[in-house]
């Protein structure tokens, strides 16, 4: 079973996932975020995904999901170096730093609580998040075109692409596609008909929505949004 809550770190989410007993497997959909993970006593980092990440046999996980663009300064690694990957924290940090973080997680009542403490400490020691990138995420999440958002922020195309690779792991157009997907799935899961979902989320039409869903997730829309049961 998956559960999440807002973190004390602004914009972040603390989550846990435990076996539900149904023996099924799933997939983690791209969301523009990076996560600090705990699994089977190990600390890992989930890089930004450009496609669905398959989940194998159910097992216990915990994580802190950072708001898009905020994790690289905290973790000390550009996002594009971790794109579509899951990496042991020991491959990114000095051994002593990993040992201290692991001890903090293991000392907590629950790994998720310990991960949140690690994230809060990292944020306290790092520079504040780049407000320009934060405004970019807000604009794209609301459906603003990339070019219009860049103009409003005073960023040229090359500068925007370079900063996006470091912060998000890919260019702004890919980030916009992923955020639009998240917007569409939220509408569809709330019961909005697919054709209306496509229009409200900014797709040309329902077939365009269907193509984008399959491209980014590898499955059709109806597999992600099952039909509502009849009364």
Automatic annotation (TrEMBL):
InterPro entries: AraC_XylS_family_regulators, DUF6597, HTH_AraC, HTH_AraC-typ_CS. The keyword Transcription applies. Pfam families: DUF6597, HTH_18. Keywords: DNA-binding, Transcription, Transcription regulation. Residues 130-227 form the HTH araC/xylS-type domain. PANTHER family: BLL1074 PROTEIN (PTHR46796:SF15), HTH-TYPE TRANSCRIPTIONAL ACTIVATOR RHAS-RELATED (PTHR46796). This is AraC family transcriptional regulator.
